[in-house]
Amino acid sequence: MTNAYCDLATLKSGGALNISGSGHDRRLLHLLEEASRLIDGYCNRHFYVLETTRQFEANWWSPGLQQLLVPDLIGADSVRVAAKFDGVDSPPGWRTAEYRLYPMDAAPERAWGRPYTRMAIEPVCTPVCRRTDCHALVEVAGRWGYRQDLQETGVATSAALGAGDASVTVSGTVPGTEGISPGQTLRLDDEQVYVTAVAAQGLTVERGVNGTEAAAHEPGTSINAYRYPGPVSEACLQLAVQLWHTRGRAAVGENEAGRRPESSGGLGREAKALVAAYRKLAL
Q1: More confident residue, 242 or 200
Q2: What is the DSSP code string of 98-161?
């Protein structure tokens, strides 16, 4: 996936790498993306919002509402269930199912929320079914991830945006866009875009990322930015700084202590401590 949990302006700032100019922007952005994927792997979950449809196989043995464990879920758009019995070689017959999401106090669309991790689904079989070894397929279309926290940027599109356009013209001048930086994921209507460069009044973006589709947008469309948990963004920043210095020293084959640099294939101690509370067991 193309996204990052920290933005390029923060990485280049005086509190981090203190880099001016844009000569290394592409490489630095790639480091932020790599750091973000390392965090995902360590935590066994992701913090960006992925919009997609997933299928699960359930083995249900009792009547009534059935419990299904799911990966981090922000919200479901639709849930379908299909009976799939052993020995029957035919396409499943899907039907829309009623469901409830748990835990009920999750609130994944709040800045302090957490994801849904299970759902209760109405039974697959009819009342006349007497089987006790029923297998079922469950299809969930929705938004997946730890939470969806959107922040207003204060800018909007100032011109119509076609589905194939890679540049977004925004309202305001340079001060109006100083809160938007490469590495951020933005939302325009139902579409997510990934910022790769920022000019005075224009953004260069990758369209339709994280499972969304590129679409046309009218002038005046508000632009919101996705935010991630603070410790996750800080861990991403620290890890990107570490990767920058490690790879720079790797060119001469040793680190500041005169030893060969350690592998950059994982998180350092500080980054692990920051995201420890968000780590979950791999299923």
Answers
A1: 242
A2: -EEEESTT--TTSTT---EEEEEE--SS-TT---SSEEEEEEEEEEESS--EEEEEEEEBSS-B
